[in-house]
Design a protein that fits this description.
Keywords: Cell membrane, Membrane, Transmembrane, Transmembrane helix, Transport. It is a multi-pass membrane protein. This is Protein lplB. The protein is mainly alpha-helical. It has a single domain, classed as MetI-like (MetI-like fold, Orthogonal Bundle), CATH 1.10.3720.10. The chain has 17 helices and no strands. The longest helix is centred in the N-terminal third of the chain and has 32 residues. The termini are far apart.
C-alpha cells in the first residue's frame, strides 16, 4: 500500500517547471507582431537617446576635441561646481521654474476645456472640424513665425495692441522688452500655440467614454454641466495624470527656442533660463563639458520629479505612469 501511495502521489518537486527565460521567450513569440511594431520606436530610443549617454562622460572631464572623449582628462564634479557657483545660478533656476511651472499650471486646464467643448459639439461635425483645425494650426508654426506675429501685435510703434492703446489715449507699452510683461507674453503665447495640440489626447479619451454613462446620468436628471463633472472628467482622470507626469519630467525645459527667439538684453533678469545660459557658455564659448553637466543635472531633476509625482499620483489619484 505504501508503494502504491508513493507512486500515485509523486513529489511536487519532481515535476519539471518551465524556466522564466523560456516563459518570456514564449510570451514574446506569442506577441511577436506587437513587438515588431514597437521595434522602430525602440531602435530610435536606443540609437538617439540611450546610445549618446556613453558620451555624457565628458560632463566629468575637461573635454578637448583634439584628445577626444577617451583621451580628455577627468576632473570629477568641477563642471557641476562651476554651474552651481555661477553668479547667475539662482536667477537662472528661478526664471526657468517660474516659466515652466506657469506653462504647466495654466496650460493644462485650457486643453482640457477645449477637449470637453469639442466632445460636446461632436454632433455638429462641420463646426467641430473647423474648430479643431483652427486650434491645432498654431502648433505647426515655428517660434520664429510666432515671434513675427507677436511683433505685429505688440510692437510699440506699429503693433495692433499699442495702436488701440494709443487710440484710447494711453501710452504704448514695449511688451517684449519690459521685464514686467515678458514672462506673461512667453507663457500666454505658449498656451495659445499648444492648447489645440494638447487637447488631442483628452479628446480621444472623451470619445472613448461609454455613451450609456451619459444617458444614464441624463435619465437621472443630471444637467450637461453635471455630466461633464461627474462622468466626463472622472473618465479622463488617468490621461490627465499621465500628461502631467510626463510634463513634470521636463520641468527644467522652459522652451529654449521660444525664449531664445523672444528675449533680449533688457529682459535677461526675468527671461534668461538655464538652456539659454548653456547656449552662451557651452556652445558659443565651446564649453562642451559644462553644457553636458547641466544637461545631466536637468535629467536627474526630471527623473526625481517623475518618481515622486508618480508615487503621489498613485496614492491620491489611484493611477500613475508605471
Amino acid at each position: 500500500m505504501g508503494i502504491n501511495k508513493t507512486l500515485a502521489a509523486p513529489s511536487v518537486h519532481a515535476i519539471p517547471s518551465k524556466s522564466p527565460a523560456r516563459l518570456l521567450l514564449r510570451r514574446m513569440w506569442r506577441y511577436r507582431f506587437v513587438y515588431l511594431m514597437l521595434l522602430p520606436g525602440l531602435l530610435y530610443f536606443a540609437i538617439f537617446r540611450y546610445g549618446p549617454l556613453y558620451e555624457a562622460q565628458i560632463a566629468f572631464k575637461d573635454f578637448q576635441p583634439l584628445l577626444g572623449v577617451e583621451g580628455s582628462p577627468w576632473i570629477g564634479f568641477k563642471n557641476f561646481e562651476i554651474f552651481f557657483k555661477s553668479y547667475y545660478f539662482s536667477q537662472l533656476l528661478t526664471n526657468t521654474l517660474i516659466i515652466s511651472v506657469a506653462k504647466l499650471v495654466f496650460g493644462i486646464p485650457p486643453a482640457i476645456i477645449l477637449a470637453l467643448a469639442l466632445s460636446e459639439i461632436r454632433h455638429f461635425t462641420r463646426l467641430a472640424r473647423i474648430t479643431q483645425t483652427m486650434s491645432y494650426l498654431p502648433h505647426f508654426l515655428s517660434w520664429i513665425v510666432i515671434f513675427g506675429v507677436l511683433l505685429g501685435m505688440l510692437s510699440p510703434s506699429t503693433g495692433l495692441v499699442n495702436s488701440a492703446i494709443s487710440s484710447a489715449g494711453g501710452q504704448p507699452i514695449n511688451f517684449l522688452t519690459d521685464p514686467s510683461w515678458f514672462r506673461l507674453i512667453v507663457v500666454s503665447s505658449d498656451i495659445w500655440k499648444e492648447t489645440g495640440w494638447g487637447a488631442i489626447l483628452y479628446l480621444a479619451a472623451l470619445l472613448a467614454v461609454d455613451p450609456g454613462q451619459h444617458e444614464a446620468a441624463a435619465i437621472d436628471g443630471a444637467s450637461r454641466l453635471q455630466r461633464i463633472i461627474h462622468v466626463s472628467l472622472p473618465n479622463i482622470k488617468d490621461v490627465i495624470v499621465l500628461v502631467t507626469l510626463l510634463r513634470l519630467g521636463s520641468i527644467l525645459d522652459a522652451g529654449f527656442t521660444q525664449v531664445f527667439a523672444m528675449y533680449s538684453l533688457p529682459v535677461y533678469s526675468v527671461g534668461d533660463i538655464i538652456d539659454t545660459w548653456v547656449y552662451r557658455e557651452g556652445v558659443l564659448n565651446a564649453q562642451f563639458s559644462l553644457a553636458t553637466a547641466v544637461g545631466l543635472f536637468k535629467g536627474l531633476i526630471g527623473l526625481g520629479l517623475i518618481v515622486v509625482a508618480n508615487r503621489v499620483a498613485k496614492r491620491f489619484a489611484g493611477s500613475g505612469l508605471y
